[in-house]
Design a protein that fits this description.
With 350 residues, this protein is of the alpha+beta class. The chain has two domains: 166 residues; 132 residues, Rieske Iron-sulfur Protein (3-layer Sandwich), CATH 2.102.10. The strands form four sheets. It has a five-stranded antiparallel beta sheet with strand order 3-4-5-6-11. A four-stranded antiparallel beta sheet has the order 7-8-9-10, with no helix packed on it. α3 packs antiparallel against α4 and α3 runs parallel beside α6. The relative contact order is 0.08. The N terminus is likely disordered. Bound molecules: FE2/S2 (inorganic) cluster.
Length: 350
């Protein structure tokens, strides 16, 4: 703060003071000078200082408890729970509790910091004359000294209770944001790696909705199938049927080049995922002479007589094969799930 009054260096002190009196009387905007400093109760009574310290620590502790309440509310209240709270009426229990606890957590930190500054930090007012922006080495050294003095006066190092509870409160507030990650939805767990297929499920013809027998699959035909037991009332039905979609062809066993493919087939009948491993289009074109299937989206081509490896196009991975056999009643059945994720390649395949 700088003085508006320009002092006359040639006047003796008494004359200058009298001059200032006259000037103040004439000029209502004259600098009235600093008010006398009055010490606070905390400055002269150590017990009062302790009380203030406990009050500040209590506010930071309240902030921590409110943050814990925020997290507990997030876990405890379902999204659709409505409660009546006077005077707000019917409100979402989750939204109300989140807003209340987060508000208290932030308010308590602010209130604690203000109370700390007003009651325990130094309140001696200091006049600092204006100076050039660039600090001289002496000023820089003085600033450092003042900083260390301020730090000592604030009791930051000495009042460990305040310091530690403040660190605790500041460290816990961001946890509120961490639990909000739950809104991104449940983790996929193994849903990306598994399908509805499992050992013993019959292959159901998607056109007739009947279980398939080996004799229903003729050379040159392309048959689409799904697992038995898919419930169209299941909310996940569309996902399940899309992931489990199967295409079945019959190839002369002597023409099957891949040893594992032959082992996983039944009398030359092979079953592969219908979902292209490029970006997931359904494969629908089959060329009997070459045993190639073609994806209509970007022309990826797979050789069904050689482990469905990619022979053309952008797909980066062979189609997953389903191991099949025949059950006691003579119907085609799965002998397990696909041995790898169906559809577009994702991170674990590189
Ligand atoms: S989705 Fe099949 S080639 Fe692109």
């Amino acid at each position: 703060m700088s003085s508006n009054r320009i002092s006359d260096e040639n006047l003796p002190a008494e004359q200058e003071s009298a001059h200032a009196e006259v000037e103040r009387a004439d000029d209502p905007f004259a600098n009235p000078g600093m008010p006398a400093h009055r010490p606070r109760i905390q400055d002269i009574d150590e017990r009062a200082a302790k009380r203030s310290e406990r009050a500040v620590a209590a506010m930071f502790t309240l902030s921590m408890l409110a943050t814990i309440g925020f997290i507990a509310s997030f876990v405890a209240f379902p999204v659709d729970k409505i409660v009546y709270i006077w005077p707000f009426g019917h409100v979402s229990a989750l939204n109300f509790s989140l807003g209340l606890t987060l508000g208290v957590a932030l308010f308590a930190i602010g209130a604690g910091a203000i109370h700390w500054a007003r009651t325990l930090m130094s309140d001696v007012e200091i006049i600092q004359e204006r100076h050039p922006i660039e600090a001289t080495p002496e000023v820089a050294a003085q600033a450092k000294k003042d900083f260390l003095l301020g730090s000592a006066e604030s009791g930051f190092g000495r009042r460990k209770l305040i310091r530690n509870t403040m660190f605790g409160a500041l460290a816990m507030v961001p946890l509120s944001g961490v639990v909000l990650l739950r809104d991104l939805g449940p983790l996929p767990e193994d849903k990306l790696r598994t399908t509805f297929w499992k050992k013993g499920l019959m292959l159901i013809n998607q056109n007739t909705n009947e279980p398939l027998r080996p004799e229903d699959v003729t050379v040159g035909s392309l048959t689409f199938a799904q697992p038995e037991g898919l419930d169209d009332h299941n909310p996940d039905f569309n996902n399940e049927i899309a992931k489990a979609a199967l295409m079945i062809v019959r190839i002369q066993p002597s023409e099957i080049k891949d040893k594992r493919e032959l082992e996983w087939s039944h009398e030359g009948i092979v079953a592969y995922s219908k979902i292209c491993t490029h970006v997931g289009c359904p494969i629908s074109l089959y060329e009997q002479q070459t045993h190639h299937v073609l994806c209509p989206c970007h022309q990826s081509t797979f050789d069904l007589s050689d482990g469905a490896r990619v022979i053309f196009g952008p797909a980066g991975h062979a189609l997953p094969q389903l191991r099949i056999g025949v059950n006691d009643e003579g119907y085609l059945e799965a002998l397990g799930d696909f041995d790898e994720p169906v559809g577009p390649s994702f991170w674990e395949r590189g």
